[in-house]
Amino acid sequence: MANPGSCVLTYNSIESLNEASELSKEMLARLRTYSSEKMFSSIEKMIQEARVARGDIERQYTLYYRCAQLSKLIYKQNDFAKFKAEHGAIFGLRFKEALDEADNLKTILNKKYEEKMLRASQEASAELRVLKNMGNAAPAERVVRPSSSILISPKELVRMVEQAQPKKTAVIVDFRKDKSELINYRNEHVITVVTVPYDLIVNGLIFTSLRNQLEVGQRPLLHRIGSCDLVVLMSDSGVELKNGQPLRGSKAHLLSMALYEYNHEHHPKSSPLFMDGGFDNWRDQYPMYTKSDGTLKRNEPKDQLDHMVINYKKACLMLDYPDLSPPRPSVQQPRVARPITGFVPNDVPQSQSLKGVPNAAIIRAQEVDVESTKRMETTFSAYDSAVSTSSINDTPLLPQSSAAGTSVPPSLPASLKSAGDSELPAPTPQPPSSTQKNIVPPSVPTPPLQQPSEISKRDPCVGQPIASGYHPSVTVGTHPSMPSRMPMVDRSNKPNQQYDTAQESKIDAVRITPVSVPKSNAHLAQPRLPLPDRSTKPVLISIDQEQQLLDIYNSMCDSTEGSSNRRSNPRPGYTGLYNMGNTCFMNATLQALFHTPLMLSIFSKENFMSRVNPHNKMGTGGVISAVFSAMMDVIWSGQYTAIKPQRFLRLFASQVNSCLADGHQHDASEFQLFLLDALHEDTNQVTKRVSFEQNYKGGSQIMNDAKDYEKKSRLFSCSPVNKIFNLQTVSELSCTACGEQSATFEECSLITVELPEHASRTSLHHCLSSHFSQTTLDGDCRWNCPKCRAPKPASRLTKLWSLPPVVVVHLKRFSMENGDYAKNTMPVEFDPGRLDLSEYLHEYSPESAEPYRLYAVTNHCGRLNSGHYTALVCHGTTGEWLRFDDESVSSSSASGINTSEAYMLYYKRS
């Protein structure tokens, strides 16, 4: 009996063998005239023949395959009922044997065919090397890979991820025009599908520009092409090839170049493949792994918050354009930088008290603490070139009374106008006047203003720099007749760290001089809800949209209150998050972001609406910003020891990515990318994106290149989130043959560094040095030199060009091995007190080399699918290191950081 391993294969794939095993139409027509018993006798003969043919696995497979075909025919015969009564038992056994044997042989054959193709490829490569060593140029047709080498069938792809040893992982990039039907594979970690809009694929496309134009739920998925084994591009029905390669300039060619040639951050392990037959072939072979996008079941709204979000999103889908008309007089539409406390007697109607103030809801206050009325506002606009800060201690921004008695807020001083706002009409400065008063009826006397010196005696923070990202707020009580709204956040408990003057100039700040409130009139105080400061940018959000977002914010606070724990006396920032079933990846990441400088001054009830751009269809319209701000305020309210972020997770799943709410463990770094992308697009001030190509040469022209990139990139994307986290790198390529150079600028919100494979321990300095070291592009990675007009070896050097206030370093501990995640537990040494990135800066970079210090760490123990995330955070006010383990919050120290479990490192400028 022949050995199956020594058989000679006639065919090259299981598909071609199946085609040869099919019974002809003529044979099928003749068999249908037979009785069921006669066809069954043929099955018996073929099974006996297959048993004898052991060793010839292709013939065995053909015989069992035909037995299965005949068995299906018998089921359809008219006399099947009579046949089943007499021979049903033995027929069932034979049918099962045919199916089982065919399936087993198929697995063996697939492996044999793969080995056969591998041997053929190795022989071809060896032949080419021999020809090269002999000094003979290989024929053109031998240099070009055969077309089959860049094509992969759906069955071959599924077999490689399910049965190959070791098992593979793949990312399918779907760039079809019509996506009414989609791939729905059972394990998205094994086969990840990324949808790319067909119209985004244009000349000059690079990886970063492609990524930034995808939906926020797709962007982190695209990063997986750097860690998976196979990248497969899929069109409708296949790609047109010429000499075994996609046509130059075609969509397939441009996309392949963007993902492979012009991708420095997440470079694939091998050049992309193309799905043979495209989606049509996948649907024919795997209909069970296909879904119709138009018939996807939508989650029904379950509570009032769901209804609010749905109604708000519907309103955003209507034709609603930004207000680009000239600014109206301030009497009709005042621009107040901060909420202003007014005094209105009980007998004055609310409508009168709100005169000149749009969309303001009255909340009666029992008492206003003067020490808690200091405010700080961060204003970002699409015209700002950097995050800048300035403060006013002596100029009270109070409304002026017009001749008609209508309260008019003063314009911002010209000194607060950012340098980049020169194109906007500058508000006319109003000189200090004795007529400046609070918003009060004429019959009510205005209380005297406190002098700055008097305030400074009571508040030591006046006249001192306020930490970027932390701002106090007003604590107010509610009138007994009004329903309580949770939480009335006390921002005075937020951290007040000291930043140097250079750091302070990174955010535009406007401080309101506190107003003294006589206790006799305390019951009359009526602080107004936040009104966005629009003095530095066009109006992007309507009053109705503001109110809807505020309702979403309040509803999120209410839902959080019902699932919170008030035990003991918690302090602001000491609130844990309950685990809702494998959600520790989210909890740890949120704690790090809640304690991130600058995020606190953007995502709060007072500020987030002035940043939201509901006209940006790439984001969530501000929904995620609203619920994230609610979570931020609850955490810093100092009212709860732990809260349950269940509603946040549900909304995040419905608005951004549903996979993260499937009850399984996920990568914390991916969750952060999803969340920051959503917040970025919510606050992206660019209403109409302008794409651009990077045709930069680098070298001596790198400074001009950087200025041009900065100018053009701000017409594509500009948000306060990116200004906090996004660092900028520049990669310079140099052809070793002709010296041609090229430079590409890229932006990312974290630095992902590889850990060395063969070492017992390493350091962050070593990982960063390796990440920013010079590499050589050769073999399949050769650069398509525009001057040589051919793939040529090249050198590539990537360096930092600009640095943000916050730098996040991701230690890449996880990798896919044999279809499952493997973890590198190598200790990585780092200094919590200092991170110096100066040696990784480009020599021409204008960036100042300020050191950073650690303020948070995300830790992971165990495996990805069965491990646990925790966070170690330095509290901004107390300076105490806290360990957040879901709902548990305990004291810790920087020396307690486990270097074998550290996964994400969060640094801020010292």
TrEMBL record:
GO biological process, one term: proteolysis
Region annotated Disordered, chain positions: 394-502
UniProt xrefs under Pfam families: UCH, USP8_dimer
Domain USP positions: 575-910
This protein's UniProt keywords: Hydrolase, Protease, Thiol protease, Ubl conjugation pathway
Entry's Gene Ontology molecular function annotations: cysteine-type deubiquitinase activity
Superkingdom, taxonomy of origin: Eukaryota
Chemical reaction(s) catalysed: Thiol-dependent hydrolysis of ester, thioester, amide, peptide and isopeptide bonds formed by the C-terminal Gly of ubiquitin (a 76-residue protein attached to proteins as an intracellular targeting signal)
EC numbers for this chain: 3.4.19.12
PROSITE patterns: USP_1 (PS00972), USP_2 (PS00973), USP_3 (PS50235)
Record carries keyword Cell wall biogenesis/degradation: no
Biased composition (Polar residues): 394-409
PANTHER family, per database record: UBIQUITIN CARBOXYL-TERMINAL HYDROLASE, USP DOMAIN-CONTAINING PROTEIN
Family: Belongs to the peptidase C19 family.
Name of the protein: Ubiquitin carboxyl-terminal hydrolase
